[in-house]
Design brief:
Helices cover about 60% and strands about 0% of the residues. It is mainly α. α2 crosses α3 (about 60-70).
Amino acid sequence: MAQMETDLPHTRIRTIMKSSLDTGQITNEVLLLMTKSTEMFIKHFAKESYEHAKKPNNLTYNHLADLVQENDNLGFLLQIIPQKIKVKEFKALLEQGDESSESSSDSE
């Protein structure tokens, strides 16, 4: 098999693949295909995010998070690329959680 040029480091992709409990032996061919597939996905994801952005002067984290939120096919990234919220909003969510857990324990 001819050597294909890739931009991502193969060692990093191998490490990520090995972090899965179900991964057996990783051949060089599989590693090359996974590396190239990952690069293609990242390029496609960045392009889609850029095109989806309202003001595409540059690509920001929020553009990526917005695309993940709005595209069901990217649901697997919801925990990895969540919408940013302000600390004030986070504290309000925590307080709501505390209140709901207190009310559920009161009814027991």
